[in-house]
C-alpha cells in the first residue's frame, strides 16, 4: 500500500504496550482519517505518549500493529520520517546552536520540501532573532520556533504532544493562532495531544478519548459535549441512591441543591429526579472541559468497563 494514498494517517490494530507489569496500551484499535485537526485526550497515564512513541517508531509494540501514513511504524525510512512533523512539550532543539544555523540546517535537510513562506508566516508571531542561541529563547519562543520549523518541512502529518505545556496565556494564544491561521496546516493532518480543553475546543475537529490504553470515544468535540448534561435539582434529603442514578458521572451538593453530571440522558432524566422527590429540576449544557473531566473522573473511580461508550 502506498503511504500517500492511504485513507487513514494512523491505523492501529489490537495495539498493546506493556512495561513490566503495567499495560500502557490495551489492544487499541484506532483509525484517524486524513485531514483536519484531531485531539487525543486522556488522564495522566492513559497511554498517549506511549502511542506517539510507537507511532513514530521510537518504541516497539508488545503486540498488535501500528501504521502511520500507511507504513508499519517499526519500519519507517528517513523519507517517511520527513513526511511527519513532531513537536513535543520539551521543544528539544540543541540549545547551543544559533537560530539562524538551525534554520539553515533544516532548509538544507528538507531541500525541495522546505516551505519558507510557512516558516516566515509562523515565526512572524514571535520576536525570534537569527543571532540568538536556541537556549536563550523563552519557552513560548521555543515553542513557536518549533512549530514554524515543523510546518516548513511541509509535513503530511503533524504530531503535537502537549506543545503548550508550561506556556503562559499569551504564549499559548500565539501558539494556537500560529496553528489555526497557518496556510500550511490546511494541507496536513494534525494530531494534537493536550490536557487543555479550552484549546481543544478552539482548534480540534475531532476528539479522541483514551482511558487506560483503550479507546473510549471518537466524535466532533461538540457531539461529545452534547452527550453530557448537568441537572440541578432541589431534592429533599440525600436524593436518590447514587447507584440508581442513570448515566451518573459526578454529583455535588451546592447551596442545598444537587448537581448531577450525567452521560447520555434525555428529558426522562428530569422525570427520574421528580419521581425521586425533586421539587425543581433544571438541565443545562456543559463546557467541553467539564464534560471530558467528568467523564474521565468517573472512569477513574470505577472499573474501566463500567461505562460502555465506544
Ligand atoms: N518507560 C516506562 N517504563 C515503565 N512504565 C512506563 C514507561 N513509560 C510509561 N509508563 C507507564 O505507562 C502508562 C502510560 O504512560 P504514558 O506516558 O503513555 O501516558 P500519557 O497518557 O502520555 O500520560 P501524561 O498525560 O501524564 O503524559 C503510565 O502508567 C506510565 O506510568
TrEMBL record:
InterPro entries: AAA+_ATPase, ABC_transporter-like_ATP-bd, ABC_transporter_ATP-binding, P-loop_NTPase
Domain of life: Bacteria
Keywords: ATP-binding, Nodulation, Nucleotide-binding, Transport
Matches recorded under CDD domains: ABC_DR_subfamily_A
SUPFAM superfamilies to which the protein is assigned, alphabetical: P-loop containing nucleoside triphosphate hydrolases
Pfam families in UniProt: ABC_tran
UniProt GO MF annotations: ATP binding; ATP hydrolysis activity
Domain ABC transporter, residue spans: 10-237
SMART domains: AAA (SM00382)
PANTHER family in the cross-refs: ABC TRANSPORTER ATP-BINDING PROTEIN, ABC TRANSPORTER ATP-BINDING PROTEIN NATA
Family recorded in the similarity comment: Belongs to the ABC transporter superfamily.
Protein name: ATP-binding cassette domain-containing protein
Native source organism of the sequence: Marilutibacter alkalisoli
Classification lineage: Bacteria, Pseudomonadati, Pseudomonadota, Gammaproteobacteria, Lysobacterales
Amino acid at each position: 500500500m502506498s503511504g500517500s494514498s492511504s485513507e487513514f494517517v494512523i491505523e492501529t490494530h489490537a495495539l498493546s504496550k506493556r512495561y513490566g507489569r503495567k499495560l500502557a496500551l490495551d489492544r487499541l484499535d484506532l483509525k484517524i482519517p486524513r485531514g483536519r485537526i484531531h485531539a487525543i485526550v486522556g488522564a495522566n497515564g492513559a497511554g498517549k505518549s506511549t502511542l506517539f512513541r510507537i507511532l513514530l517508531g521510537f518504541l516497539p509494540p508488545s503486540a498488535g500493529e501500528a501504521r502511520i501514513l500507511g507504513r508499519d511504524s517499526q519500519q519507517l525510512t528517513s523519507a517517511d520520517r520527513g513526511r511527519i512533523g513532531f513537536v513535543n512539550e520539551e521543544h528539544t532543539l540543541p540549545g547551543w546552536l544559533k537560530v539562524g544555523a538551525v534554520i539553515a540546517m533544516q532548509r538544507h535537510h528538507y531541500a525541495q520540501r522546505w516551505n519558507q513562506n510557512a516558516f516566515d508566516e509562523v515565526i512572524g508571531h514571535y520576536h525570534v532573532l537569527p543571532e540568538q542561541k536556541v537556549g536563550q529563547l523563552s519557552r513560548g519562543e521555543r515553542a513557536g520556533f518549533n512549530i514554524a520549523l515543523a510546518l516548513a518541512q511541509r509535513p503530511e502529518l503533524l504530531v503535537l504532544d502537549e506543545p503548550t505545556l508550561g506556556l503562559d496565556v499569551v504564549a499559548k494564544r500565539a501558539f494556537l493562532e500560529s496553528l489555526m491561521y497557518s496556510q500550511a496546516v490546511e494541507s496536513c493532518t494534525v494530531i494534537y495531544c493536550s490536557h487543555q480543553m479550552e484549546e481543544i475546543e478552539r482548534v480540534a475537529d475531532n476528539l479522541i478519548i483514551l482511558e487506560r490504553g483503550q479507546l473510549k470515544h471518537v466524535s466532533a468535540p461538540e457531539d461529545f459535549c452534547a452527550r453530557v448534561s448537568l441537572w440541578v435539582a432541589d431534592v429533599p434529603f440525600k436524593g436518590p441512591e447514587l447507584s440508581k442514578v442513570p448515566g451518573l458521572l459526578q454529583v455535588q451538593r451546592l447551596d442545598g441543591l444537587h448537581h448531577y453530571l450525567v452521560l447520555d440522558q434525555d428529558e426522562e432524566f428530569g422525570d427520574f429526579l421528580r419521581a425521586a422527590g425533586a421539587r425543581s429540576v433544571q438541565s443545562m449544557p456543559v463546557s467541553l472541559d467539564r464534560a471530558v473531566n467528568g467523564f474521565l473522573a468517573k472512569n477513574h473511580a470505577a472499573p474501566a468497563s463500567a461505562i460502555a461508550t465506544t
